[in-house]
Specification:
The chain is of the alpha/beta class and about 300 residues long. The chain is built from twelve helices and ten strands. It starts with 5 loop residues before the first strand and ends with a helix. The model has no long low-confidence stretch (mean pLDDT about 95).
């Protein structure tokens, strides 16, 4: 299972930023060949991205690339440049139908074979950025064995809906609420991850944490970042806190003690605990132990 608490976009035409990304503790560095790169810069961005993939992977970073969408006619050239050892995943923008991922599969397999990479090694993330993509999420999830996550693109989706891009607020219902919920429920049904849209105000750390906290409460597994300063808060929000882990361990211990006595439920800190709650506690502890064994979060 991929770890995607924080996914930081880095423009593919910025060598200086790609070099600095090697020291950023994001779960994934997403080299961007799409929106962050002006049209005239795209050929150079491909070459720059291709050169950066090996160095970032050698530095221990999980390297992803956001290619240009299939309807641009640029996807094949993007993939020809960046498919190589060290590339973990491709993010496909504006996915609106299952056929989009099938077409990506064909193009990826073509490049994997050309590079002597085992077919299927490189995974995919589907960016849902239109109303059509939202209502077709289930078909999209069934389209490809490469798929590891659905990701929300709020700017394009808001434009498609004809509304300003809303900021998530506690208790608020806005144009993105349905999309977020749809991504979470559909991704979970197909054992995939759900990634939230970037928070655009780089200097507003409180707003970032607020939006990320709400996304986690909805069931999102992580969030895109557009600046290194956003990475640590995202890793923190989308990781279990020490208090959550301690509570989960108390739940497991109390339940196992009760089970040994033939009891099916037990009270922990005034809360009735039964098997579903214990399963959730075990999942949380396993996730925390995985983090502790990796980056120590």
């Amino acid at each position: 299972m991929f770890l995607l608490r924080s996914l930081m976009f880095v423009p593919g035409n910025r060598e200086d930023m790609l070099e600095k990304a090697a020291s950023v503790p994001a779960d994934a560095i997403v080299i961007d060949l799409e929106d962050a790169v002006p049209p005239a810069e795209k050929p150079r961005a491909r070459a720059t991205a291709a050169a950066a993939i090996g160095a970032l992977a050698a530095a221990g970073r999980a390297v992803h690339v956001r290619v240009n969408g299939l309807r641009t006619g640029l996807t094949r050239d993007d993939l020809a440049a960046v498919v190589r050892p060290g590339l973990a995943a491709v993010h496909l923008p504006k996915v609106e139908a299952a056929q989009d991922l099938r077409d990506l599969d064909v193009l990826l397999r073509e490049q994997e074979l050309a590079r002597e990479i085992r077919p299927g090694t490189i995974r995919s993330v589907a960016l849902i950025e239109t109303a059509r993509g939202v209502v077709r999420c289930e078909d999209i999830c069934r389209a490809s064995d490469r798929l590891v996550a659905l990701a929300l693109g709020a700017e394009d989706l808001s434009r498609d809906l004809g509304v300003p891009r809303p900021a998530a607020e506690p208790g608020a219902h806005d144009a993105l609420s349905f999309a977020r919920a749809t991504l979470v429920y559909t991704a979970r049904a197909y054992r995939l991850l759900a990634v939230d849209t970037p928070y655009p105000q780089v200097r507003d750390q409180a707003g970032l944490v607020r939006e990320a906290t709400l996304a986690r409460a909805l069931g999102m597994n992580g969030k895109y970042a557009i600046h290194p300063a956003q990475v640590e808060p995202l890793n923190r929000v989308f990781s279990p806190s020490r208090e959550e882990v301690d509570e989960a361990r108390r739940i497991i211990a109390a339940y196992e003690e009760a089970a040994a006595k033939g009891l099916g439920a037990v009270s922990v800190d005034g809360r009735m605990v039964d098997e579903p709650i214990v399963r959730a506690a075990r999942e949380l502890v396993a996730f925390a132990e995985r983090l502790a064994g990796g980056d120590g979060a």
